[in-house]
Specification:
4 strands, alpha+beta, elongated, about 110 residues
Amino acid sequence: MKKRGIWILCAVVLLCLAAWGLSILRCEILTARHGSEFDNAWKRDTMLIDPAYWKVLDYSESAASVYFVAPDKKGGAVLRFEKQEGNWVLSDWGPYWSATGSADDIIWPYIR
């Protein structure tokens, strides 16, 4: 009975790690395919600064969620864009995270 519990626990941990790994792989593929579309999209909002990097978390022909990380890599936010007249327009942002703990939401799959 004890061995069965260990096997079940190991299987659950492996499934969680596989789901996380597949989510990261999906984001990397979306970023490789569509990341260049957001080179200048963030510049339309004067509150944002030049990001260190960004990852495309979700993408469709009409909407996208992109994870932008601050230049010092001590903060980040998910920006949501909508396509209007062929251009990506910032529609919303959040969750946010900060190394100082002032904004500490979890961003899946990158966590921080």
